[in-house]
Design a protein that fits this description.
single chain
Length: 124
């Protein structure tokens, strides 16, 4: 009889979200696919990269879109930048695709600049 851990997959996308190494992340599959679409669109505009960097960029953009989109949409709603009539089902995939598109050239470098700033001058 095989052990349950031996038959478990390392990553699975189900209707309830993404599961990595047996841990349920709570990421919405719709947002992951929209982030993936945005990352693939960025690849068509970006400079040529080796296959490994393309793969890691696409996966990280998709995960980043899955994590950041709900918070970004909530902040935009709190600031009243969206009309009240737009449903969450419409705005979430569009925002995830935008975040996936911007993650490699805009969001990633911004995160690295902020991390470098804190590394050079840590808060007291």
């Amino acid at each position: 009889m095989t052990e349950p851990a031996a038959t478990a997959t390392t990553a699975a996308v189900t209707a309830t979200g993404l599961t990595l190494f047996g841990l349920h992340t709570g990421l919405d599959p719709t947002l992951l696919l929209a982030g993936l679409a945005g990352a693939l669109m960025e690849l068509s505009y970006g400079e040529p990269r080796p296959p490994w960097r393309r793969l890691t960029g696409i996966v990280s953009a998709s995960l980043l879109a899955g994590y950041l989109t709900p918070a970004a949409v909530a902040i935009v709603r709190i600031k009243s930048l969206l009309p009240e009539g737009i449903a969450e089902e419409v705005i979430l995939p569009a925002a995830a695709a935008t975040i996936g598109f911007l993650s490699y050239r805009v969001i990633g470098p911004a995160i690295l600049r902020i991390a470098n700033k804190f590394a050079m001058d840590p808060p007291k």
